[in-house]
Amino acid sequence: MRVTKGKKIAAGAVLLSSVGLIAAVGMTANAQQSVGSALAGPTQTRADLEPLNNGDGGGRATVTVDGRTLNVSLDAYRLLRGMPHAQHIHFGATARHECPSVRDDTNVDFRLTTAEGQPGYGPVKVSLTKRGDTSPDSTLAINRFPLAENGQVHYDRRIKVGTKLAGAISRGNAVVVVHGVDYNNNGKYDFRSAGRSELDPSLPAEATDPVLCGVLAVR
Ligand SMILES: [Cu+2]
Questions:
Q1: Residues 24 and 46 in one domain
Q2: Which range of residues forms the domain containing residue 28?
Q3: Which residues have C-beta under 5 Å from ligand 1, the single-atom ion?
Q4: Centroid of ligand 1 to alpha carbon of 5 (angstroms)
C-alpha cells in the first residue's frame, strides 16, 4: 500500500518536471524568435514598374517596412508630362498579388481599367499623395499627387499604416500602381478616347486607368 502511494508520487513528480521542462524550452524558443526578428530589422521591398495600357514608361518603387512605418520612394519616367498621376499601394487578401494582364480585360475593349485590375492587385490601401491624407479616401485626390514634370515623377514619403498591411507588404503581396494614360496622345486627359472614369464619372478614364504596375517583392 505504502509502496504504491510512493510510486504514484514519484510518477507525479516526473510528470510535473517534464511539464516544467517543456515550458522552459517553449519560453527559450519565444525569446529567441523575438531577438531574431529585432535583429532582422526593416524589410526592404522593391517593384520594377512595367507599363500597362500601351504606355511606354517605366520606373521603380521601393518600400521599406519598419514596424508600421513605410519608407516609400518611387521614380517613374515617360509618363504624360505636366499632368498629375494618381499612385497607390494596392493589396487585397483574395487578390492574386500580381499586375493585371490582357485576360483581365473582361469587356474586351483593349484597355484595362482600375476596376478590371483589382482581381490582380486588389483595392487601394495607401494613396501615395505628396501631403495630407494617405488613406483610400484620397484615391482620386488628383491635386495632391505628383505632377509629371518632363514626364518624370520622383517621390519620397514616410507613411504610417496598420499592422495587417505592413505584414502583407513584408510578405511581398502588395502592388504599386501609377495611373494616368494618354490613349490618343494629345498631351492631356480628355474624354474622347476612353470616355468617363468608372471610379468618378466627372474624370476622364484617361486620368484613372493604370499606366505602370509592379509587385513589391521582398529583396
Ligand atoms: Cu491605384
A1: no
A2: 1-40
A3: 88, 177
A4: 73
Please say whether the beta carbons of 100 and 175 come within 8 A: no
- Taking the chain (219 residues) in consecutive chunks of 10 residues, what is each chunk's mean pLDDT? 42 40 40 46 97 95 98 98 97 98 94 96 98 98 96 98 98 98 96 96 97 97
Cα(171) to centroid(ligand 1), Å = 20
Give the span between the Cα atoms of 79 and 65, in whole angstroms: 27
Residue 2 host element (H or E): helix 2-40
Burial class (CB in 10 A: 0-12, 13-18, 19+), 191: middle
CA–centroid distance, residue 216 to ligand 1 (Å): 14
Q: Residues 132, 95: one domain?
A: yes
What is the pLDDT, as a whole number, of residue 41? 87
Ligand 1 centre and the CA of 121: distance in Å?
9
- Count of beta carbons in the 10 Å neighbourhood of residue 136: 13
